[in-house]
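Below is a filled-in request sheet from our internal design queue. Each sheet records the structural input a requester submitted and the sequence that came back. We keep these sheets so that new team members can see what a complete request looks like end to end.

REQUESTER: design group, bay 2
PRIORITY: normal
MODE: inverse folding
CHAIN LENGTH: 166
BACKBONE (tokenized):
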């Protein structure tokens, strides 16, 4: 075990002494001060916005950007609690349809990878009904999650065919 750890550390080009001049003694202009390139540009946190490649629009986020955008478009009528484009998780708050004020829905969407594939998105739908002023869990129709996933995939195909900037 110790041998594996030592091998890993030596492969990482780890140096005990380090670079004594980094970063305190370096000039700010040398490090790109005043430039967004290290965070927002090429190779930065959000990736290169001009890059394109065989990853089907996955540049800049941790998951497929077409599925991400299609998911947000599909559930845009629901309030969001959390949206993590790097982890591929979208969580909505409870939504009460105007037609049925005694029931509400919540959706969790998981984008599972960088490829635009039919199995690249999963949706979980939760339903509650109002019973005497208290919200109680209720069953969801079996095809609801599948229908939502299909709507997301259809929207992703529309975005791809329209050549939306990825």
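RETURNED SEQUENCE:
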């Amino acid at each position: 075990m110790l041998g594996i750890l030592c091998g890993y550390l030596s492969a990482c080009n780890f140096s005990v002494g380090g670079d004594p001049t980094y970063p305190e003694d370096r000039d700010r202009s040398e490090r790109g001060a005043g430039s967004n390139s290290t965070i927002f540009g090429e190779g930065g946190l959000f990736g290169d916005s001009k890059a394109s490649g065989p990853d089907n629009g996955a540049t800049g986020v941790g998951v497929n950007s077409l599925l991400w955008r299609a998911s947000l478009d599909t559930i845009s009528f629901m309030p969001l609690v959390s949206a993590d484009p790097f982890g591929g998780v979208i969580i909505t708050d409870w939504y009460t349809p105007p037609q049925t004020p005694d029931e509400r829905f919540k959706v969790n969407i998981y984008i599972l990878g960088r490829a635009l594939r039919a199995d690249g998105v999963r949706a979980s739908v939760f339903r509650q009904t109002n019973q005497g002023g208290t919200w109680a869990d209720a069953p969801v129709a079996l095809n609801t999650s599948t229908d939502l996933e299909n709507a997301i995939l259809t929207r992703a195909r529309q975005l791809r065919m329209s050549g939306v900037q990825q």
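SHEET NOTES:
- Residues 1-55 have pLDDT under 50 and may be disordered.
- The first strand starts at residue 80 and ends at 84.
FILED BY: M.R.
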